[in-house]
């Protein structure tokens, strides 16, 4: 509590103000996100984007080779770049909130937002974090399962080795631990930063990337419980959407995008 208070005291007067929310608010944001998705379904767009990527990764995985150990890190990386990929979804929720015409092609209106430069800057930052995650995942594999003489030839053999060998269990423990830290970092930096940039830019009051990132961090520090619940909801839905064959992500990703907009509305004072 004391650290949160100190952080709030050092915030400039013109910085976006943060509201305290409850666990129920986090759940309600998800409900509102589902409502927006029902009003403007966009699953076909996400299927068109997801399937070529998933097909390429799956084909490489089945063929074996150097990319095989990175199949799971690549798949789980959706959570790290998802906030940037959902920009168009935030725009749809913003327009619906203001009773403006809403259609799937309005998602591309983000390119006209005055805050586009700051949005792209944070997007590049997320890509760098994603690259760092792949590097860390590769290092963990090379020091655990990759250090053994046995080299899986395909995905089935890799899964068997992970769950039936001591090195595989160490890989699971270290990999999931590192993935959790990366996910917390991205959640803290982006839970409200992208919607804030988009919203203030559309209103003609753009903020810079640094302000957006600091506001997101303050939102998490001021609401640790609800934000932890939000992170669990996101992780659970992404896992659910990944089975089978990531098809469910075509619904999960846009719903989470809409819900993130409503969470932003609950946390950041207008």
TrEMBL record:
Protein name in UniProt: DUF2189 domain-containing protein
Transmembrane segments: 44-64, 70-93, 114-141, 178-198, 219-239, 245-264
A family per Pfam: DUF2189
Keyword Transmembrane: yes
Keywords, ordered alphabetically: Membrane, Transmembrane, Transmembrane helix
């Amino acid at each position: 509590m004391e650290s949160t208070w100190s952080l709030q005291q050092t915030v400039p007067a013109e910085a976006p103000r943060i509201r305290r929310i409850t666990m129920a608010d986090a759940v309600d944001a998800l409900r509102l996100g589902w409502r927006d998705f029902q009003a403007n379904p966009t699953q076909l767009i996400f299927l068109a984007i997801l399937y070529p990527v998933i097909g390429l990764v799956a084909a490489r995985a089945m063929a074996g080779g150097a990319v095989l150990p990175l199949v799971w890190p690549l798949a789980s990386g959706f959570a790290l770049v998802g906030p940037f990929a959902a920009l168009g979804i935030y725009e749809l929720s913003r327009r619906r909130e203001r009773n403006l015409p809403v259609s799937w092609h309005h998602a591309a209106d983000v390119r006209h937002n005055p805050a586009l430069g700051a949005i792209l800057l944070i997007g590049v930052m997320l890509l760098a974090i994603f690259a760092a995650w792949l590097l860390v995942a590769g290092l963990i594999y090379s020091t655990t399962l990759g250090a053994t003489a046995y080299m899986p030839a395909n995905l089935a053999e890799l899964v068997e080795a992970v769950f039936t060998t001591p090195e595989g269990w160490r890989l699971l423990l270290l990999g999931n631990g590192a993935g959790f830290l990366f996910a917390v970092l991205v959640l803290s930096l982006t839970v409200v930063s992208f919607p804030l940039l988009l919203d203030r830019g559309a209103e003609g009051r753009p903020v810079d990337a640094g302000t957006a990132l600091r506001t997101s961090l303050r939102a998490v520090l001021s609401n640790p419980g609800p934000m932890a619940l939000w992170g669990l909801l996101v992780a659970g839905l992404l896992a659910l959407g990944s089975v089978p064959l990531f098809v469910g992500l075509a619904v999960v990703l846009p719903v989470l995008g809409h819900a993130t907009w409503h969470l932003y509305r609950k946390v950041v004072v207008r």
